[in-house]
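Slide 14.
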Amino acid sequence: MRLTRIAAVVLLPLLPLAIVWSQSTPPDQQDGHASEQQVLESDNTTVSLSPSSAAGKELQPVELAPLPLAAPAEIKIEHSDHKQTDRMFWVVPNFAAVSPDTELPPLSARGKFILAMHDSVDYSGFTWTAILAGQAMATRSVPELGTGVKGYARYYWRTFADGVSGTFFTEAIVPSITHEDPRYYTMGHGGFFHRFGYALSRTVITKTDSGGTSFNWSEIVGNALEAGLSNAYYPPQERGFKQTARDWGTQMESAVLNNIAKEFWPDIRHLILRHD
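Slide 15: predicted structure.
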């Protein structure tokens, strides 16, 4: 099970509120323009010199030439809250997410393995695995693993193995072979459904190392490899072709939820945590 599945389920109900906030207008630009105009108009006042300053000689008022009122420059506000963070809610690894309007150089094979390592062995990965293992045991998703402390330990190391193998297959091994970029490039602009559709499409379409786009072999094949590998360490009742196919479907569902969570995490982060 991918480590972002539950996070996405938690974040999805918050998406409409986040989008409403993200599409709100910037603060009072018209008030700023009015203040600017008042300052400029104050510079156009008539200046008269005091008679005493000219030894009694009467001077005529000097009229200053009016200053041209230039159109206010267009202000481009870059919301820092639209930037991605390394973790979602401090416990969900998010190292593969790229902030909107960001162009990055292609990752080398070594860079892809480093990215997968960060997503796998960061402290948040261990914490999130603990949460997922607890949920799996509470729902008895694999009843053969038992309950109690021993049962939880069995759930934990298998959940950790699922996460690490899936991450390395989809972010390092397969992308290095297919020359694909495993990072998620956040759109961050546009309406809710436009961004939602973009997040869905990234499950089957990805960016290549050369800057183009291609079929997302990393996600499709990588998740299939992870599902197949799980046959090696789950009980016999949880193995076989049908179970592997179900596991692959679960992995792809998690990938979809993962992309949606990444796309709207910056909006939710500002809305809930009020981070600027």
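Speaker note: The chain has two domains: 5-26+81-273, 27-76.
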